[in-house]
Amino acid sequence: MNPNKALWEKGDFTRIAESMRESGEDVVRHARITPGMKVLDLGCGDGNTAIPAAKLGAQVLGVDIAANLVAAGNRRAAQAGLSATCRFEEGDACELRLENKSFDLVISMFGAMFAPRPFDVAREMVRVTRPGGRILMGNWIPNDPTLVAQILKISSSYAPPPPEGFVSPMGWGSTPNIIERFGAAGVASEAISWERDSYIFDFKGSAAEFVDTFRQFYGPTMNAFDAAAQAGRTDELRTELVTLFQSQNQSQYPNTCLIAATFLRVTVDVG
């Protein structure tokens, strides 16, 4: 199996996505979506951005490499009465089976950044965007002190070394890389802009319970715990993550987590 597909089908990201719904809606509110717009949500998960976009009147296609997330997205769209305007299908961000210049807006919030061939990802996003359309990416930032970058950093320190040729997904949080990758796809640097933004995780439970949710359902963290178990370091990893989550929890209420994670919001105007 494709290793990226195996990673995201290993757990159940819907359990993490539930804590990200409100921020997903906020991203869509600021995406200048208008009724009838054709939108691609790439690396869509179960629809945190796809479904709010369809509620604004867009015609939305969500594409994800994980079959379980595609099925979950189609269930959510049906439950919301949006099956006619929002559908989900399996696909690989490195090689999309979609027509050239077919979308007004391509969104990828923390999705396409995990595909293994970033230059191919940039090329494909540009290819399927119509002239005058836009690409909007949300990417975690390497070495950022906030939640997700630190989860991935801690997890990688327990996992075995990556295979030869591995390209870190965190490279998408570096502006020189973004300019280089979209430049290779024919986009001028002046057409690319970015700014830092925050995504809020809203979890109904303690910091330790939130860590255990990542441990059970988030592929990268699951792999880290598998490796830690083999080395007899499971408790060490869990303690490190619980300390991280507790230190960043902004909630004033018991058994509630409100944790901000900084990301790079990238906008590409496709000529």
Structure description:
Strands 3-2-1-4-5-7-6 form a seven-stranded mixed β-sheet, sandwiched between helices. It has helices at residues 3-10, 14-17, 21-29, 50-55, 67-79, 118-128, 147-158, 175-184, 207-217, 219-230, 234-248, and strands at residues 38-42, 59-64, 86-90, 103-109, 129-140, 192-203, 257-269. It is built from eleven helices and seven strands.
Count of beta strands: 7
Largest sheet descriptor: 7 strands, mixed
The tally of helices reads 11
Instruction: Please state the overall shape, judged from the principal axes of the Cα atoms.
Output: globular
Strand content: 15-25%
Amount of helix: 40-55%
Let me know the average pLDDT.
97
What is the chains' assembly state? single chain
Radius of gyration: 18 Å
What is the rounded distance between the termini? 36 Å
Structural class: alpha/beta
Major β-sheet strand ordering: 3-2-1-4-5-7-6
Topology pattern, helix = H, strand = E: HHHEHEHEEHEHHEHHHE
- Spans of 5+ residues with little confidence (pLDDT < 50)? none
